[in-house]
Prior knowledge:
The chain has eleven helices and 17 strands.
Amino acid sequence: MLRLRVGVALAMLALGACATVPQSSKVAPSTVPKAEAPKTEAPKVDTPATARMLGVSGGPDIATLAVAPEQARRALAAFRISCPSLIRRPDASGLARGEDWKPACDAAPGWSDADAMGFFRTHFESVRVGDGKGLATGYFEPEILGSRTPAPGYAVPVYKRPDDLVEADLSLFSDSLKGKRVRGRVEKGALVPYHDRGAIEDGALAGRGLEIAWAADAVEFFFLQIQGSGRLRLPDGGVMRIGYDAQNGRDYTGIGKLLLERGELERGKAGMQGIMDWLRANPEKGRAVMRENRSFVFFRELTGAGPLGALGLPVTPRATVAADPAFVPLGAPVFLALDRAETAGIWVAQDTGGAIKGANRFDTFWGAGADARTIAGGMTARGDALVLLPRGALARITGAGGDGGTTPRR
Length: 410
């Protein structure tokens, strides 16, 4: 659902614990031995751009990790979906090569779901990226009212990708810009930033035939854009599923953080529903603050399996996370042991998000429906994170027999 390469995380991300959600008793919290704290404060340096540059160290034996059987089964199912991309997709993190994943991918289709954890114990080893301290938020597949055609009560256009939106791979111009891309449009022979949210809402794209649907509620659509995909409940009772097609290239800004900083919302009331309530109670100020998130998402109709993640493949509720591909190979399993019990276990990095940047930063996908909305809307969890790599990958990275030594490369 999501190709939320934009802001997969809720608009509140980075707000701290925003809402209280009943924690599942089905998934036992897990603990991960913590990396030893440095003896002295490290000098302040720019954040390394990839996991390999930041440094990795060996984590605990996977056999020691507590994972509920159902969570392991979901993760194995998600990993099977990811395998083709893992093998052929270049890895920006520097942690693994395509061929490293082949033994696990060859074994996954025939592996018994009843022994899903055995699959991960057999084929993977755990590593910490940096200090292994993780932060997770949540996202879901929203359903809002919409129409395929303009009609009274349906006035918010849902646009497909404009044909003048171009993307440039900056690594083609300089090795120092490896992994960097920009989006914009060409004006008088120069690449300039694409229209931002305010300009688009003021009609910059009107009259070009780009509308694929119309939403009924601007606030609900704003949050659907943050999720990156969703469902439109049509006037005749049918459903139109839409998924991420592109983003305008503007930086994502979490408006929940802005409202907290300005004293408009109290901490503890800044979950998704609290933000929505404030936006509706303050329509003019709300419209202005939404425009401060200059990022804008374009959609396409989904007619097959979905929702889709960054790999162009279906994502799995309660098994998929969005991650920064510079720090986690897309399609790789990760293990989370956070202070929210329902997040504990193995997940698979099948998605990305404009707000999901840096090492050990994740966005957990909870599916669709009221429960998913409640959990995702109040999700902020902190703790320990591990990346699961094919056996032998750490030895190659460290060049030291896989003894878990940290290997910063700056």
